[in-house]
Design a protein that fits this description.
The chain is an alpha+beta fold. The protein has 2 domains: 250 residues, Aminopeptidase, CATH 3.40.630; 127 residues, Alpha-Beta Plaits. 33% of the residues lie in helices and 23% in strands. It contains 9 helices and 18 strands. The protein has a 6-stranded mixed β-sheet with strand order 1-2-6-3-7-17. Strands 11-13-9-14 form a 4-stranded antiparallel β-sheet, with helices on one face. A hairpin with a 6-residue loop joins strand 1 and strand 2. Helix 3 packs parallel to helix 9. It starts with a helix and ends with a helix.
Length: 384
Amino acid sequence: MNTLDWLGRLVAIDTTSRNSNLGLIETVRDALTAQGLKPWLAANADGSKANLFCTLPAADGQTQGGIILSGHTDVVPVDGQDWASDPFQLTDRGDGRLYARGSCDMKGFIASSLALVPEALAAPRRKPLHLALSYDEEVGCVGAPVMLAELSQRGLRADGCIVGEPTSMKPVVAHKGGYFFRCTVHGKAAHSSLTPQGCNAIEHAARLICHIRDLADAWRAQGPFDAAFDVPHSTITTNLIAGGIAINTVPDACSFSYDFRHLPGHDASGIQAQVQRYVDDELLPRMRREYAGARVDIECGAAVPTLDASEQAAITQLVRALTQDQGVRKVAYGTEAGQFAQAGIPAILCGPGSIEQAHKPDEYVEHAQLALCDRFLRQVLATL
């Protein structure tokens, strides 16, 4: 199958992160197996989702080294979005674009990679080519670490990794890290006419939320800064909140979620330490003057490391040479590239489509972008 055939097949499988991705993974596994390859899966704890890894060995059978082509299989929801066509059917409206959820982010790159396999198998490769498909990237890059742990256990090494996030086929050498937290403030309930007998969890949560905003304002004004990023400073923001049971009841609990996106070099543990210090030194003492049993629980839901690719890394130089692009691009969103790099596999971002089209209604990838990706991957193959 060619890239368009694969893309139509992939987007037709609804792999929204809340769903299983096994339909897609098993489809790809069976197609690769039919070509004589031996893909393996690394599943989540309950077996409802899986990563897929497949090595196309070198001509001499070597499986070590070479390049990984990596993509995530999950997509974001279409709930509440106004689509002009079925989001899970690849639609060509004659305007040079292919519409479907995931067409841009990032099944286009996966489709191009899978279409390359027959050509790669026929090529006299000196080094192997690897395919890595993950689950649950969109909800905190949860799946890739499971696959990377399996890679380590198998003793498999690679020289570099190209993560095909939508970058308009231009190299992106760095991205921010991301940490996602859920905080629950526990106070004491009381009738609202007897307010002094309670400890208002919502009001005390609001104090912490305001402190989080103060941190964000300080970074925006004082840095650290990196002008190469689209958002040139670290950020922290509260995004969800829930609390209270009735209009006449002092709430005994309030939960909220916040995340921070930090520049490479801006210490993530130090950022969270500032939040925790405020809780320990100011918020809890104030709450416990009202209620001795007050507490604040903070849990880290996901952590995505930064990417800061070395310009001297072979994978960086290769992608720059093949795209003939020396621009320095750094992005605020997180990807699995940072996880590959953390695992000792140099990584860089380069894939078809624009991030500006991702996650929106009528998401699309241009025919021209897929053609560029096909050409790029053939060039990558030629270097092996």
